[in-house]
Amino acid sequence: MIPVNWNRTKDLVTSYLFVFPAALLFVVFSIFPFFKVFQLSVFEWDGIATQMRFVGLNNFRDAIFRDPSWWISMRNASEITLVTLLFQNTLALVLALIVDREIKGKNFYRVVFYLPPVLSGIVVGLVWNWIFDGSHGLLNYALTGMGLGGWTRAWLADPKTALLSVAVIHMWKGFGWGFVILLAGLQAIPRELNEAARVDGAGEWRIFSRITVPLMLPVFFLVSVLTILGTMQIFDIIISTTNGGPGYHTEVPITRILVAMVGSSRFGYACSLGILFGLILLAVSMVQMRLSKWSSRYS
Amino acid sequence: MKFFPRRHPGENQGPVHGFWIPAFAGMTALLAIVSGCAKQEPASKKEIVLWHWLTDREDALETLADQYQKISGVKVRLEVYAPSDVYSSRIRASAQTGTLPEIFGVLGEPWDLASYIKSGHVANLEPAMLAAGGAWQKQFFPKSLANNSFTADNPYGAPPGIYGVPIDVTNIQMLYNKDLFKQAGLDPERPPQSWAEFITDWHKLKAAGIPGLVSGWGETWMINCFASNYAFNVMGEKKVLDTFRGRVLYTDPDWIRVFTLFDEIRREDLLVRGAVTMINKAAEQTFANGKAAFAFNGSWCVHPYQEMNPALSYAPMLPPRISDQFPMRIWGGAGTSFMINAQSPRREEAIRFLQWLTEEPQQSYLSRETFNLPANRSSAGALPPILAGFAAHMDDTTHPSQWAASERPTVIEAVGKGIQSILIGEKTPAQVAEDIETLKRQLMGDARNGAH
């Protein structure tokens, strides 16, 4: 008979009991819904009925091969992401570089630049509705005032400008995040490196390209990953500005999931779209992580 | 006493805190989760719970609930969950967990209500409505009850009966700004009756520099509503429903005529700039501020217009007809309806409260306070002129929930999106009709194969 070490057993039980509340909450509110989504994705269910009908992988087949609006929404989100990656992060970097210098009122600018991200997306969307309004919007008013009346248009209702307008709103709301992270990265670079380079006769551009950029590469990748994940999931601004229109021009994956779930009461299909979208984002994140590791080694 | 006494390796720990504190925490977490899932019971049998989403009517409903408690001794606890999509999600989740209150509303499409009924969540109120010679039923505008009823041959498979109590009624019409009419030299007491007159009037308004029509067509259901009005006018109810049944194609010339109307709106530059993606609240602001001569909106607009611009001079008008072959039908019926939880032990108390709430004095009070059309016909006599104008056309109303056939949600969405494409000049009416028909055929094929 194996002797029982009561002290050890009690320690073990105590340890598990400490972990139990957190584990229970995690299981109930994270693990269970996660698996429930997978379960629902193979059923046809309206979210109300007591019975669900098993449809196998039909929901996935429909999403991948028979729902062009889903792929249009993916393309739209990708376009917004690309524009955001280029312009939002460039703007954030420029502002971070400016504020990183010893300029007057830099703390004020830090607060101001960080204000848009803390605002609600719905509120931001409604405010920008007034700016982009086709009849009496501020932008059209300003353009007319500058003698550019021919450029005025319903920015959010014109298929040529709707997606770009949404991207502009998203960038305005989001550049503060990138700014804060990039600024933190810049401040982590030892000042001595720049000073030594200056002593050696390096100009500002050379310092930026040979010291700042290599040392900032991991930060750039972090900001890129966050930008991609955040932008692909854009939703609240769309709802409060274009509602996915005109036509499908500003539909994004989350609005399609919402339409499937609430508009058509197809919970199973909505879950399959959610899984598909999650897998795509996971793949993108994995590529980014690989690149990030590579950049860490390089820097 | 230390809650987390420092111990050394090998030290025999005391018998108390090291074990009981985490055990207590674990039990607390377990209890919190279990109690969170438990059904929320009213405090006493003299209390019923009503969940609603009507933030604009909250005060009026609270006043009536207090009044009811004084009369009957039954407390009606009102809980607001807004906006409406949050409310809908809550109702769905509560239905799944069996925690619905005594009285609640079902927002959404007829198939949603049918699903709640089939799942046993909504009580059939027909016996109560028909009791005492149908006294309760006779109080209402028939169309308002029809929106809450399912007939024996309904396409949703719901058992026949009356499942909701209308609190107010709505209908969706066009509105015109009388001051802008005067400004353009038009008779403010004679709105256009036909589409041709409408276009003629529009030319005069346009010449006077007045913008045309505004509506929240970023919310595609409003486009579908407008299109449906004209589909009924052009081809009549039977042909519209036959289209839903798959017996008439969307590429039929009558449907093309309906879609062409939107192309005409585009060519005539009739729509206010940006209205194609506008939410209805923004459209209401535009019309209230006198920046559009016409609006397409529901009778619920009276309150927001009053709030936004009390001096606004306007009146409702039926959408100008394009055909004399069939009557113009507008969407209307029940605006707000409440359902009774079929599984609640206090459903009789809940029915008694709704009977009281729909009596003439309470309905008149609600109408006066909230600028909505009352569901009780006897309260409609003392309406202000604009609401009376809406009420005058209650007999011209129809609604998808009353139709004997229903269209698939994805097709309905394709119609709305397709019309948006016409309005922005991206697609022709024929292309949109073809797109919709292709989708419809695909879905019908799936249905035949049992995929959906």
Overall description:
The complex is a heterodimer of chains A (299) and B (452). The longest helix of chain A is centred in the N-terminal third of the chain and has 35 residues. Helix content of chain A is 75%, strand content 1%. By secondary structure, chain A is an all-alpha fold. Chain A has a single domain, classed as MetI-like fold. Chain B has two domains: 193 residues, Periplasmic binding protein-like II (D-Maltodextrin-Binding Protein, domain 2); 207 residues, Periplasmic binding protein-like II (D-Maltodextrin-Binding Protein, domain 2). The chains are: A mainly alpha (299), B alpha/beta (452). At the A-B interface, helix 1 and helix 11 of A face helix 1, helix 3, helix 4 and helix 16 of B.
Structural domain tally of chain A: 1
Number of E-state strands of chain A = 2
Second-tier CATH architecture of the largest domain in chain B: 3-Layer(aba) Sandwich
Mean pLDDT of chain B: 89
Q: Largest sheet of chain A, order of strands side by side? A: 1-2
